[in-house]
Amino acid sequence: EQGYVNGTNDKIVSTGLKRLKSLLCDIAFSLLVGLLLGDLLAGLLFELSYSIVRIYAGGYHASTERICIWLTYISTLLCIVLIFYLPLIPIAMNILLGISIVVLFVYSPVENANKPLNQREKEVYRKKCLFTTLLEALLYFVFLLARAPLYAKAVCFALAMVALGQIVDCLQHISKRQLKH
């Protein structure tokens, strides 16, 4: 009504609103799962830690929106359940975190076929990914020192999930190249 949306920017605004709705649904789902399992903050911490790094790191993209939604909710549910019920000693979490950080440092940013990045964008995304990854790793250690292993595990699993997405994307590209030959 105010004239801010017109033929030149309607698709950009529509895409932005769609992404915002998706993010809010993802956060709400994580909050609900966390609440049902006994700790709302653990669910929120997982989702925020995952989402922030995933923005800059990239990773696996499903072939359709429907598959993406299903994979998102199933993987989120699985991760949050594992955060609550999978007993891990700190050394195992440290190893998982270390592997995740190495994967993120090696592969970030992973491009999406729908939005290739130019060289400058790759550099910016990489720096932001590395910064947020290191910040979250620091947060992980703060939680461990504060004797809050549930929250440390939430951050650790979030980084591991992003790294896993990058590995799956890499394997998908390798298999596509092999099919071409």
Describe the structure.
This protein has 181 residues and is mainly alpha-helical. It has six helices and no strands. The chain has helices spanning 10-37, 40-57, 65-85, 90-107, 119-145, 149-180. Helix 1 (10-37) runs parallel beside helix 3 (65-85), helix 2 (40-57) packs antiparallel against helix 5 and helix 4 (90-107) crosses helix 6 (149-180). The longest helix is centred in the C-terminal third of the chain and has 32 residues, at 149-180. The protein is globular, with a radius of gyration of 18 Å. The termini are far apart. The relative contact order is 0.14.
Please specify the SSE layout and strand pairing.
Elements: H1 10-37, H2 40-57, H3 65-85, H4 90-107, H5 119-145, H6 149-180
Short description:
The chain is an all-alpha fold. The protein has helices at 10-37, 40-57, 65-85, 90-107, 119-145, 149-180.
